[in-house]
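We were asked to recover a plausible sequence for a given structure. The inputs and outputs are reproduced exactly as logged, with field labels preserved.

PROBLEM: sequence recovery
POSITIONS: 94
GIVEN STRUCTURE:
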């Protein structure tokens, strides 16, 4: 499924953001400011592909850095599936 946005007469495809149950629970437990920053970063990445994103080493998926927080996710041509959202700790990538 695509969401479409018209910008300057051009139509671009925007990726759909899906949170797993665990990621949604993680996001709900964060303070308001980081929660808003993470939501903004995910939306910006879905619309433009811009953000502090790197491919994970040794496993599938990507990580997005938003200040002290990380979002671990998978993506394909149409969807971003957020798997984990939390503060960066030594156990974040395990």
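RECOVERED SEQUENCE:
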């Amino acid at each position: 499924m695509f969401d479409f946005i018209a910008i300057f007469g051009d139509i671009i495809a925007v990726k759909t953001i899906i949170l797993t149950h665990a990621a949604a629970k993680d996001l709900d437990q964060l303070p308001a400011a980081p929660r808003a920053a993470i939501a903004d970063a995910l939306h910006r990445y879905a619309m433009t592909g811009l953000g502090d994103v790197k491919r994970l080493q040794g496993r599938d998926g990507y990580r997005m850095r938003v200040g002290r927080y990380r979002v671990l996710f998978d993506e394909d041509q149409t969807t971003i599936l957020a798997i984990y959202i939390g503060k960066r700790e030594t156990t974040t990538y395990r």
